[in-house]
């Protein structure tokens, strides 16, 4: 996420858009770093486009949390 924010920092500043992050201490995510960066860039650029279409300036809020899913196994 940080790499994506760095790459689009100029359009964010130029568009008067502030990014507010609340991601805490998230665990590592396994996957392709480049693919994940592209996902973040697309999400951020879509948010930037939506802000410009409505108000022209604003904030993008990024929040994340860890969810621990319990597995249940049916006994046979």
Structural overview:
It is built from three helices and two strands; from the N terminus they run ααβαβ. The chain is an alpha+beta fold. Strands 1-2 form a two-stranded parallel sheet. α3 (33-54) links the parallel β1 and β2 (58-63). The protein is elongated and about 55 Å long. The mean pLDDT is 85.
Main sheet overview: 2 strands, parallel
> What structural class do the secondary elements suggest?
alpha+beta
Distance between the termini: 44 Å
What is the molecular shape?
elongated
Report the helical percentage: 40-55%
Order of helices and strands: HHEHE
Q: What is the overall number of helices?
A: 3
Strand order of the largest sheet: 1-2
Mean residue pLDDT: 85
Number of E-type strands: 2
Portion in beta strands: 15-25%
Low-confidence stretches: none
Specify Rg, calculated over alpha carbons: 17 Å
Q: How do the strands and helices of this protein lay out in sequence?
A:
Blueprint: H1 2-7, H2 9-14, E1 17-22, H3 33-54, E2 58-63
Parallel strand pairs: 1-2
């Amino acid at each position: 996420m940080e790499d994506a924010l760095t790459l689009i920092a100029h359009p964010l500043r130029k568009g008067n858009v502030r990014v507010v992050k609340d991601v805490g201490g998230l665990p590592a995510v396994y996957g392709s770093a480049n693919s994940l960066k592209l996902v973040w860039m697309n999400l951020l650029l879509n948010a930037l486009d939506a802000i410009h279409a409505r108000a022209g300036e604003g904030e993008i809020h990024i929040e994340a949390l860890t969810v621990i899913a319990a597995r249940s196994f049916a006994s046979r």
